[in-house]
Design goal:
The relative contact order is 0.17. The chain has a seven-stranded mixed beta sheet with strand order 3-2-1-4-5-7-6. It has two helices and seven strands, in the order ββββαβαββ. It is globular, with a radius of gyration of 16 Å. α1 packs parallel to α2. α1 links the parallel β4 and β5. The chain has a domain of 102 residues. With 148 residues, the chain is an alpha/beta fold.
């Protein structure tokens, strides 16, 4: 078990049970063991965050991660998995990452051609074919010097 790793903005249906805890943006997921409202407190320790692909929510996630890293004296690192939109001019969270190199680092780029979807082991109703991924992904670390 990866003690201490926290998953932010996860779904009760796809969080990694190996992580010590997870936060959902859906209040109803409390019945599945989720914490609610990841932004109610500063992020601390080590977290992974894969928010829904909504520009406002992704920007808020990067802002909160950055503010948490800047204001903590304990090791704090948030690893964000975010889409790499082809039109970078609309990518507000990307600008925030580029403008804060002391706290933000691009760890990896995953090309859209490398994404595949696993066929579910069980399915109710008509089974669907999953299309190819239409954008690439960035893995970004937002961390303080104690976490580096």
């Amino acid at each position: 078990m990866r003690h201490g790793l926290k998953e932010k903005l996860a779904s009760a249906l796809d969080f990694d049970p190996e992580n010590s805890s997870y936060w959902s943006e859906r209040h109803r997921d409390i019945v599945f063991g989720a914490n609610y409202n990841a932004f109610a407190t500063k992020f601390t320790g080590f977290s992974i965050c894969h928010p829904v692909y909504d520009d406002t929510k992704m920007l808020k996630c990067v802002q909160h991660s950055l503010q948490s890293a800047m204001c903590n004296e304990v090791p704090t690192a948030t690893f964000l998995i975010l889409p790499n939109w082809e039109n970078k001019s609309i990518n507000a969270y990307g600008a925030l990452v580029r403008d804060n190199p002391k706290y933000c680092t691009m760890l990896n780029f995953i090309p859209k051609t490398k994404f595949t979807y696993t066929i579910p082991t069980s399915w109710k109703g008509v089974q669907r074919n999953f299309s190819n991924h239409t954008w690439s992904m960035d893995i970004i670390a937002v961390w303080n010097k104690e976490a580096k």
